[in-house]
Amino acid sequence: MPKVQETILEIDLKALKHNFEYLKSKLKNGTQFLAVVKAFAYGNDAEEIATYLQNLNIDYFAVAYANEGAALRKAGVTKPILVLHTLAVNFDVILENCLEPSLYNAKILSEFIDFAENENQKAYPIHIKFNTGLNRLGFSESDSGYIVEKIKTTQSIKVKSLFSHLAASEDLNEKVFTLNQIHSFKSIANNFSKAIGYQPILHMSNTSGVLNYPEAHLDMVRCGIGLYGFGNSKKESANLKPIASLKTVISQIHHIKKGASVGYNRAFKNKDTLIKTATLPLGHADGISRIYGNNKGFVTINGKKAPIIGNVCMDMIMVNITHIDCKEGDEVTVFDGKTTTAEVLAEGAGTISYELITGISQRVKRVVLK
Ligand SMILES: *Cc1c(COP(=O)(O)O)cnc(C)c1O
C-alpha cells in the first residue's frame, strides 16, 4: 500500500463484494437486489461503487435526487436507477437520463403525468411510494383508488414498482409495529396490482429489514448501509466488513506546557506538567464534526488511541499523543474496518455510522483499492 501523505478515504472493493454476497445470501433465489447509492454511496464514491456493483450484475440502483442519478449515467451506469425523492424541478434531468421517479403524492403524480404526456412518453417507468408508518414520504392506503383512476387516464407512464419503507426494522422492540407495516403494505400492493391489472415489483426492506424480516424481502430489497459494511447493531454488523478507512498524517507535534491551552476558545487547558499534541490535516469541513471534539472522538497512531482535544477546527484537529511514540509525517487512522470502525467512533460521539460516513466531505481524496 502506498504511503499515506494526506487525508484520504481508502475504499476496499473486496469488502464491498463480501457485503454484497453476504446480504444476497439472506435472500431467496430470484429476489432482486437494489443498491442504494445516494449521497455519494454514503460518502464512499458512488461512481466507483455503482460501476463495480453493476459488473457484479446487481439489478437496480437508487439515489435520493435526480442529479445523483445523472452523475451515475455519466459514469457509465446503465442499470435502472430509481430516484427516491423526486422533485418537479428535476423532471427534465430524470427524462434526459432515463431515471425512474418515485411518485409519492397527488401533486407530483399529476405533474409527472402532465410532463410525460407533453414529452410524448409511452409507458415511462415510475414507482409508487406508500407510507405505512414512517410518515415521511408516500401515499396513504386510502389514496389507492385515486392513483389507479389517475393512472388509467394515461398511456404515458407504467407502474414499475410499488414500495414502502420500514420505520424501525433495526429495533426488535418495535416488531409488532414493523409486522403491521409489512402486513399493511402487502395488502395495499395486492389490491393495487389487481386494480391496475398488472403486477409491479414490490419492495420495502432496507439493510436491517433484510437481516431481521425475511417476510419483508418481497420481490426486491434496497440495501445501503449494509453494502458499506454496517448494520444497525453490533450483531447486524458482525458479518459485514466496513469498506472505507479514513487515514491522515501528523502535520506537526507540539509540547504544551502546564497552563497552556490548545485550539480555539482555549477549550483545552493543560493541567498536567507537560503534554505532547499532534495537529492533523482534517477538521469539520472534512466531515469530522465538532461533536468529536473535547475527548468525544479519537484517532489511532501506531496502534494507540489519541483523543481529540479542544474544539475541532475547520481544517484541523489536535490530538493528545503524550503516551505515543510517533513523529511528524507518521500515518494516523481515524476509522478503518478493524478496530476503530466508523460505527465505534460515531457511537462515542452519540451519533450513527450513517452520519459519520456520509459526512466525509468531497474535499477528502478517495483512493480505491481494487
Ligand atoms: C436510504 C434508504 C434505504 C437504504 O437504507 P439502509 O438502512 O441504508 O439499508 C432504503 N430505502 C429508502 C427509501 C431509503 O431512503
Automatic annotation (TrEMBL):
GO biological process assignments? D-alanine biosynthetic process
Domain Alanine racemase C-terminal, by residue range, is 243-369
Which ranges does the record mark as transmembrane?
Answer: none
Reported EC number(s) for this entry are 5.1.1.1
List UniProt keywords, sorted A-Z: Isomerase, Pyridoxal phosphate
GO molecular function: any one?
Answer: pyridoxal phosphate binding
Show the GO cellular component annotation of the record: cytosol
InterPro entries from the xrefs?
Ala_racemase, Ala_racemase/Decarboxylase_C, Ala_racemase_C, Ala_racemase_N, PLP-binding_barrel
Pathway assigned in UniProt: Amino-acid biosynthesis; D-alanine biosynthesis; D-alanine from L-alanine: step 1/1
Per its UniProt record, the required cofactor names are:
pyridoxal 5'-phosphate
Q: Which residues make up the binding site for substrate?
A: 136, 314
Q: Can you name this protein?
A: Alanine racemase
